[in-house]
Amino acid sequence: MDIFSILKELQILPTEDALTEIEKLSQEEKTELCRKLMEEKPVFLDGDFVKSVKKPKIEVMEFSSYQKEVTIEEFIEILNEYFDFLSERVKRKMNPLRLASISSLKDNEYYGVIGMVKSVKQKEHSFLLEIEDKTGSVKINVNRDFFPEDKPLINDVVGVEGIYRGKVIEAEKIIYPEVEVSGTPPFEKETVLYARNDDSFLRIVINGKFWSVAQPAIFRIDGIEVLVFPNKGVHPVSILKRRNLQPGRVNLSLLLRSSPHLVITQFSPSLREEFNGVKIFGLRSKEEVRIKLKTLEEVL
């Protein structure tokens, strides 16, 4: 039975935009629309109802941790690009009137500086960091309360605001290059993403297609970006704050250059969080989850 026969039999009135959308459907999508019409029996058929059966376009981009041997000149270029990308994201979150290069600091003044962490010393109630930019380096005394989840790492790029006194900045604020607020993008289809933690990989299923993800990957499903991150030892919020899938290392291919809308990762215990609008699902061993992409909510 075709769509128009069902509309006639069930006395469902199609709108003009519904007829336009029906013409765009594949045969598989038309079959699904027939099934849905017979199941739900709406009074009117509009364009949104038709769009809900359309299959989303899926692109998968894997991150690569492989780095070939490089010359000193090439490494300096990589380091500069890494620093420039992350420091630009930090700069957006800082007071531009306070920003200064490290070499220009003067005693007893309040500054904002951006640098890469060169060393970390843990004290009883604080961390003593040394950070450097392209003009020099400076020590930073940071209260441990700034790092409730994990301590700062070498090669982190951070912004610091505080008073420079006696060749040390007493930090009053620490800023990471964290992902921007993403929000839920418009998604018209009734697509459900299935994920399962199989220990050696994360199993992902979308519309009957299967992936076994053993390395970090971004799934682009129409307008939604899903970061699938199989790593048991790293808290996903740390990844989103640092934009680095391998915290503590300089690797351009492992930088998060855009903000995902959803993160699926291996984590124990089971985790459900939100960070800057990014939904995080951390799955313990053998745990599975179904997520409705239209709302980014778990299907219970």
Q: What does the model show?
A:
- It is elongated and about 85 Å long.
- It has 300 residues and is α+β, with helices and mostly antiparallel strands.
- The protein has three domains: 9-51, no CATH class; 58-66 and 180-298, Purple Acid Phosphatase, chain A, domain 2 (4-Layer Sandwich); 93-175, Nucleic acid-binding proteins (OB fold (Dihydrolipoamide Acetyltransferase, E2P)), CATH 2.40.50.140.
- The chain has a six-stranded mixed β-sheet, covered by helices on one side.
- Strand 12 and strand 13 (224-229) form a beta hairpin.
- Helix content is 20%, strand content 35%.
- The mean pLDDT is 91.
The total count of strands amounts to 18
β-strand amount: 25-35%
Biggest sheet overview: 6 strands, mixed
| Number of structurally distinct domains | 3
Oligomeric state of shown chains: single chain
User: Order of strands across the biggest sheet?
Assistant: 3-12-13-14-16-15
Helix and strand succession?
Answer: HEHHEHEHEEEEEEEEEEHEEEEE
How big is the Rg? 25 Å
Helix % is: 10-25%
The rough form would be described as elongated
Look up the CATH topology of the largest domain: Purple Acid Phosphatase, chain A, domain 2
CATH architecture of the largest domain: 4-Layer Sandwich
Q: What would CATH call the class of the largest domain?
A: Alpha Beta
Residue stretches low in confidence (pLDDT < 50, at least 5 long) are: none
Q: How far is the N terminus from the C terminus?
A: 33 Å
Question: Averaged pLDDT, please?
Answer: 91
* Helix-and-strand structural type: alpha+beta
- Number of distinct helices: 6
